[in-house]
Amino acid sequence: MLFDGASLVLYMCGFVVYMANIVKGLRVVSGGKYDVELVEVKGGTGGEEKPLGRDDSLKVLAASNTILALVLVGVLVLQTGQWYAERKQTQEIEQIRKDKTAANKGNGSTQRAASAKKKA
């Protein structure tokens, strides 16, 4: 459950990054309307806006692609971890079953020998 939940959260983060930054950035880049997009200037006296230029738009697009790639690698790592944990659990269950059957066979033969000695 932990791996699936974390993978779902990462997928949602990737979807948000894709829709918020990458789609918007690709529209701006393909349309060539770099100065139309406006961004609020932080620390201003309020209401000041500065046009986002070509370089900044491409930097945001590149950073968003990098973030999306890292998020998807994180999903792959989580899914690989889940597969490994399930495989290890299956191996341990099989080992426990083998140990129990070996112990039962060993106990059964000693009990038969003891009962045979008592009869004799």
Quick description:
The protein is mostly helical.
Description of the structure:
The structure is a single chain. The protein is mainly alpha-helical and about 120 residues long. The protein has helices at about 1-30, 55-120; strands at about 40, 50. The chain has a two-stranded antiparallel ribbon with strand order 1-2. A hairpin with an 8-residue loop joins strand 1 and strand 2. Helix 1 runs antiparallel to helix 2 (about 55-120). The chain is rod-shaped and about 100 Å long. The mean pLDDT is about 80.
Question: Notable features of this structure?
Answer:
120 residues, two-stranded antiparallel ribbon, 80% helix, mainly alpha
How many helices in DSSP terms? 2
Structural class: mainly alpha
Question: How do the helices and strands follow one another from N- to C-terminus?
Answer: HEEH
The end-to-end span amounts to: 59 Å
